[in-house]
Amino acid sequence: MSASSGAGAVLRLIREGRASTRAEIVALTGLARSTVTQRMEALLAERLVVPAGESASTGGRPPTIFEFNRGAGLILAADLGATHSRVAATDLAGGLVAQTAADVAIADGPEAVLGWLEERLDALLAEAGSGRAEVRGIGVGVPGPVEFAAGRPVAPPIMPGWDGYPVADRLRERYSAPVLVDNDVNTMALGEYWASWREVEHLMYVKVGTGIGCGIVAGGRIHRGAQGAAGDLGHIQITSDEQVVCRCGNVGCLEAVAGGGAMAAQLRELGHDASDSRDVVRLVRSGSQDAVRLVREAGRVLGGVLATSVNLFNPAVVVIGGDIAQVDEHLLAGVREVVYQRSLPLATRSLRIVRSRLDDRAGVIGAAMMVIEHVLSPEAVDEALAAAVVG
Ligand SMILES: [Zn+2]
Prior knowledge:
By secondary structure, the protein is α/β, with parallel strands linked by helices. It has 14 helices and 14 strands. It binds zinc ion.
């Protein structure tokens, strides 16, 4: 049995709303009616699909309508940030069932942070009236580079003690479910894509917080590149000015000029009380002309790098998120000005540059969707059903 004709492929048709009756599945797959009945029985036994009523009859017995059962298990999702984390339980369509957020320092190391995370995840399961047996998968975003296949951070600059730590293995053992770990901007990009931009295939998500990061959705999937380093906009060199030293150790990086941390430092030099990106936002809102000027200028500098990226990648949407996007009227004005001026007309003809719609929920929703697409892929569903028959 190939994955394109198995029960997993049938489930995909139902999940995507392309088929809801046995006859429609027969028509779409070309499978024999008896085979489709068999596939449906396997999916019904696992409660992945449920009967939803009956369609209008064309004479004779009306056909049964089936729908995807988004309540057939829970997904756990975590967005671990530098200083603030969000944890959620979702249904199998990424709908939030329970969530919580707290100030947690990623720099406290994996034992402390993952101990906290496990406690919160167990509490969310209890709140949802479920247990570990209902968990179908876990998705985690972390603020650093990740070896995706292994689920381990790799030399993350702001995560001391996490280099090579087996995050996925630890959670997989505890919850007996598949675990995927990715860089947080990738999960945020995926969250925005699933929540608002399913009709476009190509999207860039740019997070402007203390630093600057970028996640790329190409053809509906995260583009990680050969080594998982794709989208590292923050450390593209934009000036050879030796005075502009970046936290990565290089000189002239984009985030050393246009990141929230860099803007806070410039505001301090001008005599303002500012230590991080949230202070920059506060100063803009309180009407500081220095802060407004810096955010607009940062938008233009970011726009210069995005203009090049737009020519190279030709996205349909650029979504801007992160703390600084809270003052989007200033940031996006600068970005738009430069991108529309400098990118190729064909690349910008229908390009939209918009603010994040999910804000700080993008990370958990994206982490959940990442793992849902994994555990409900035709291959994974076929495997799980085969295991259920054997077990
Ligand atoms: Zn840098």
